[in-house]
Design brief:
Elements: H1 4-7, E1 27-32, E2 39-45, H2 48-56, H3 62-67, E3 70-75, H4 79-93, E4 108-112, E5 117-121, E6 133-137, H5 140-154, H6 173-176, H7 190-201, E7 215-220, E8 225-231, E9 234-239, H8 242-247, H9 257-266, E10 275-277
Antiparallel strand pairs: 1-2, 1-3, 4-5, 4-6, 7-8, 7-10, 8-9
Helix pairs in contact: 4-9
InterPro entries: GIY-YIG_endonuc, GIY-YIG_endonuc_sf, GIY-YIG_UvrC_Cho, UvrABC_protein_C
Keywords: DNA damage, DNA excision, DNA repair, Endonuclease, Excision nuclease, Hydrolase, Nuclease, SOS response
GO molecular function: endonuclease activity; hydrolase activity
């Protein structure tokens, strides 16, 4: 069954003229309605014009296209700048049609030690420097559900994970069902149990900020150079010179999950990327 947007889709002839004003370069684009104060949608691309054309041909976006009266754009030197600027603008302006990259100031993570497993919160612990954190969750319930999922798969003990109460040295009910390896009744050491948990969570490990302070990441095109200033996985802004980058000295207000993911996926994996330590 087609949804309402698809049934009412028409090519946005009223926006056709805007394509001629859009560059075929990297950057961020903004869809505005009649009120230019608040954007309807913010996106990014390595080719702004081509990406906006794709929106025009997407029937599922009929409502957005009908509401849009103009499109603005901000060019960047490359993809990294576009990714960081898009994330920042969405958090600051909260567009109506963007469902991702919204600001989440309070996050949860699983902290695993040799003896305990607990859910900790980003407003209480600095996630950029804490050790043995696994996963970024919007709610405590989401963190617990992930812990249960891994426990069921790896035969971990709910009691040892703090998910249910245990009687001293007595086997849990799941052990009798073969779903627990027996840390609850000393068939397995707690250290071994926690090591198995860490190994299962390893792909979700949160990396500590690997620099002593602020850094500037250089991104170049044939015509221009930009410096993206970052600290503790937080994007502080983009400037055109290294001297200007040294003047950007803002204390990150919170741990930003989206900036963290962007930096891990698109920056730390870029070999040969020019990074300057500012502190």
């Amino acid at each position: 069954m087609q949804n309402e947007n698809t049934l009412l889709y028409q090519y946005p002839e009223h926006l056709r003229h805007t394509l001629d004003t859009l560059p075929s370069r990297s950057g961020v684009y903004v869809f505005y309605g009649q009120d230019h104060t608040f954007p309807l949608y913010i996106g990014k691309s390595v080719n702004i014009r081509s990406r906006v054309q794709a929106h025009f041909r997407t029937a599922a976006e009929a409502k957005l296209l009908r509401m849009t009266s103009s499109i603005n754009y901000f060019e960047t030197v490359g993809e990294i700048g576009a990714l960081l600027l898009e994330s920042q603008m969405i958090k600051e302006q909260r567009p109506l049609f963007n469902k991702r990259l919204r600001v989440t100031r309070k996050l949860c993570s699983l902290q695993v030690s040799d003896g305990t497993t607990r859910v900790i919160f980003s407003n209480e612990t600095d996630f950029s420097t804490a050790h043995d954190l696994f996963g970024l969750f919007k709610t405590k319930m989401a963190a617990i559900e992930k812990l249960r999922e891994i426990a069921d798969r790896e035969r971990l003990c709910y009691g040892a994970l703090g998910l249910e109460k245990l009687s001293n040295k007595r086997a849990c009910f799941r052990y009798s069902l073969g779903r627990c390896a027996g840390v609850c009744c000393e068939k397995e050491s707690l250290e071994a149990h926690q090591l198995r948990l860490k190994n299962a969570l390893e792909a979700m490990r949160i990396r500590s900020w690997p620099y002593p302070g602020r850094i500037a990441i250089e991104e170049k095109s044939e015509q221009q150079t930009e410096y993206h200033v970052l600290n503790n996985w937080f994007y502080l802004g983009t400037v055109n010179t290294l001297d200007a980058a040294k003047e950007v000295n803002i204390t990150p207000p919170h741990f930003d999950r989206d900036s963290y993911k962007i930096l891990c996926q698109h920056i730390l994996k870029h070999k040969g990327l020019a990074i300057t330590l500012l502190d």
